[in-house]
Amino acid sequence: MLYANGLSALLWAIFFGFGLLAFADEKPCTLHHEGSYYNLNSLTASQDYEFETLGGYPFYLNVCRRVTTESWSAGVPDNVDIAGLVRKGHHDFAIGLVNTTLEMRDTGLMLHLSNGSPCPEEDNLFGSSSIRFLCDASVYGAGKPVVISQFPEDDNQACQYTVEWRTHFACPTGERGLISGLIVSSVITMMILLMLFIVSSTLYNRFVLRKRGFDQLARPSKIHLLELVDFCMELFRSAVDNVRSSGSRWARSARDLNPASHQWSSRDEEQAMMVTDPLEDDHDRELQDTNVWRNDAADASQGVDDSGTIRS
Prior knowledge:
The protein contains 5 helices and 12 strands. With 312 residues, the protein is of the alpha+beta class. The strands form 3 sheets. A 5-stranded mixed sheet has the order 7-8-9-11-10, with no helix packed on it. Strands 3-4-5-6 form a 4-stranded antiparallel sheet, with no helix packed on it. The chain starts with a helix and ends in a 10-residue tail after the last helix.
């Protein structure tokens, strides 16, 4: 009963936490406006959208990320994220850096890009652009951006661009709220918990209860769930106890270890080398006794002649 109440409280905490995160988290390139929710992340592409300026120069643009086209002599640092560029005759012109903040204006959903390449023959002016996203449900797919104005009009001198983009991704959708966030998080959490229950229950039936065949498959029941939770808690406590015991043994061994006992000085080495081995002493003693016996035998042989008479 205690496990059931704790598990229920844990599930409610997870659901409520996921719901708050879903409500509070505001993704880049999204906007809540007057009860509607706009999301342009679907326009983020692995390849840049390519179209042309009014004078025919190639125009490369991406949404909510940097362009994948390599820039050449754009006049901006290498570590910045270029949102779009115009490939002019002898160099590239960055029309602005990546911006993920959308704005709602009278003309529609707007995305402003700034701090691009230095403007030709202008001081303290840099490339910029305004992208107007128009809701058009009749446009299939992402649609295609179009340059509707540029200033100055000369392509080689142009520094500011206005782009219009008709797409169904710019149409508003229902605003995501706390209730919808709770529902989505609840479904996801239940699916994860169900998968964990199936896998752990099958392993428990097979290796603990020694069941085989279809009997080892998970069978949802309150008693089985409580048994499984109790078994998991026992495993967790056992693992914690093992970690604690191994830590205690390591601490004791570290305290008992005397670093000074493993350090030999030259004086200690000399004294250790001077200490004789008992086996070597016994061997030397046997050799000495053998030599004495041989000397006595030689002296005895020298004091007796061939007839057996002892010489004086």
